[in-house]
Amino acid sequence: MAASAKRVLVLNGPNLNLLGTREPDVYGTTTLDDIELSLRDLAKDLGATIECRQSNQEGQLIDWLHDARDSFDGVVINPGGLTHTSVSLRDGISATGLPTVEVHISNTQARESFRHQSVTAAVCIGSVIGFGKNSYVLGLRALIDYLNPAG
Predict the structure, then answer these.
(1) For position 115, which CATH number holds?
(2) Which domain range does residue 57 map to?
(3) Which residues fall within 8 angstroms of residue 23, CB to CB, at 6 or more apart?
(4) 1 assigned to some structural domain
(5) What is the set of active-site residues?
(6) All residues at 6 or more sequence positions from 68 whose CB lies less than 8 Å from its CB, including other chains
(7) Of the candidates 52, 78, 122, 136, which lies 20 to 30 Å from 40 by C-alpha distance?
(8) Residue 26 confidence (pLDDT) above 80
(9) Partners of 102 in the β-ladder
(10) Whole-angstrom distance, CA of residue 151 vs CA of residue 140
(11) Residue 114: pLDDT band by 50, 70, 90 thresholds?
């Protein structure tokens, strides 16, 4: 019996709308639109659907997480700088009860010391960091595998 198609919410936090032009030596030249397009193609190949959203507002991300409880099976999130500071976003992820994968383009452990601690990772099923745009691909694959366990 085939697994049912899973719905995944992909959330991007502050400043990720500037991908492609923001610090290309750290984040590369791929835009958020490019990443979302490749994720849509991958989701289709994996028999899933995704919805991608980005906000520079912490409260908007939390509202989207709350709303996701009734319409999505899981979440891929790049919280951006909120990763290191937002207990509220952490609590929002936890409150959904949805399996969530945290992704980061850069290797946060190889950067400034304030980026070494993630307050959101502890409420996620896993984290993918440092693989550039492929962090999203790996994160989505891992979430779909988690949602559709081999049996």
Answers:
(1) 3.40.50.9100
(2) 7-147
(3) none
(4) no
(5) 27, 104
(6) 9, 75, 96, 98
(7) 122
(8) no
(9) 77, 127
(10) 20
(11) low
